[in-house]
Amino acid sequence: xxxxxxxxxxxxxxxxxxxxxxxxxxxxxxxxxxxxxxxxxxxxxxxxxxxxxxxxxxxxxxxxxxxxxxxxxxxxxxxxxxxxxxxxxxxxxxxxxxxxxxxxxxxxxxxxxxxxxxxxxxxxxxxxxxxxxxxxxxxxxxxxxxxxxxxxxxxxxxxxxxxxxxxxxxxxxxxxxxxxxxxxxxxxxxxxxxxxxxxxxxxxxxxxxxxxxxxxxxxxxxxxxxxxxxxxxxxxxxxxxxxxxxxxxxxx
Length: 252
Hints:
Arc Repressor Mutant, subunit A; Endonuclease, Chain A; 2 domains; two-stranded antiparallel ribbon; 10 helices; elongated
């Protein structure tokens, strides 16, 4: 039962990541499971009051995610297939990409360090994704710790490593020599990573620092405090690279 609940929570997290509100995601999932059915059944499956469920279905219909038919004088609702949902999301992304150069032209020039602040697990993912927005063969310099966030939210680590490897981005990694790190670095060759360790008793890193391109990212490794910062500055990134190289030479 716990596994079922965990998967359900993961599905909701995926759907909300595509712009659905939590209750909209619950109603869409209920429709997907039930097939063509009435609002009462959907409300019961989603665990939402019938009146609210009807309003949500109307909103999902406007967004093209639910269809409505009249059967025997009653309204029946049906979710579009998950393949159609994927097509809609890809279509939106393609439209965004088409306008990206134009939108980039609207962006204000950066004459001083640009600092962005992120909160929540979605914010953490957004920052990690930004570190991968680099050409093939690029390198991320990373101070981190296999304990904490990446142990507690294993799917986050699996997603990030897989995506980084797929994009052909290398990593050099400095971390405390705790048991979790020692297990993690056994996969270095497969995961396009070089690692060195430092004594846990002196350097029990509580946050991750990623140096990449002209940016510096700092991420909390505490799941109870998911916050992250990106600093975009050539000078800051260069200085942090020097600090990393100094640490790299001294690490075991």
